[in-house]
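Structure in, sequence out. Go:
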């Protein structure tokens, strides 16, 4: 699967879980510092950052315009609009072979798209288990992201971007393995 399709499908995975939120915006999530609203806000902020970053802007150019709660009174509507803009911007940047100016240095748009896709899939699972939604993720996405992440896991962990692997018996299920790599217990429940 090409990276634009991977990113698009990962965003769709996350967005499909929003319908299960209902009135559960304050429920806890597997990310102990975030409730459901804060988790969704985090992903929507990433989607809002995506178009300017994929268009060549720097972090300084974007500044603090997406700090705080961006969800307002219509969190699902705002999330959907931000996701659509992020998917479009990512597809354009990938087709153009752009470079993205991230905090840790210039990065090919393809690498940034993988990072975004992984966040959407893992946080889509977080959202699903927090709200009682569908927790089974697209197996093609899980496989592609597991291959991509295998070489990056220790770098992410050393940078503090992911939690330690949980102390659980290692599973043979590909989704469980990906979640463990990202510091999640696949058996989490609130």
């Amino acid at each position: 699967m090409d990276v634009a399709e991977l990113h698009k499908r990962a965003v769709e995975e996350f967005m499909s879980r929003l319908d299960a939120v209902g009135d559960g915006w304050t429920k806890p999530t597997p990310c102990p510092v975030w409730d459901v609203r804060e988790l969704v806000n985090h992903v929507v902020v990433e989607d809002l950052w995506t178009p300017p970053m994929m268009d060549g802007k720097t972090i300084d150019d974007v500044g603090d315009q997406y700090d705080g709660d961006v969800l307002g009174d219509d969190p699902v509507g705002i999330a959907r609009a931000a996701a659509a803009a992020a998917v479009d911007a990512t597809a354009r940047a990938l087709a153009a072979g752009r470079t993205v100016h991230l905090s840790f240095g210039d990065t090919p748009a393809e690498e940034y798209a993988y990072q975004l896709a992984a966040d959407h899939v893992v946080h889509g699972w977080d959202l699903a288990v927090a709200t009682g939604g569908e927790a089974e993720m697209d197996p093609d996405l899980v496989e592609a992201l597991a291959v991509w992440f295998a070489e990056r896991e220790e770098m992410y962990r050393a940078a503090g971007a992911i939690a330690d692997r949980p102390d659980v018996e290692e599973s043979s299920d590909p989704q469980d393995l990906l979640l463990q790599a990202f510091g999640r217990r696949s058996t989490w429940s609130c």
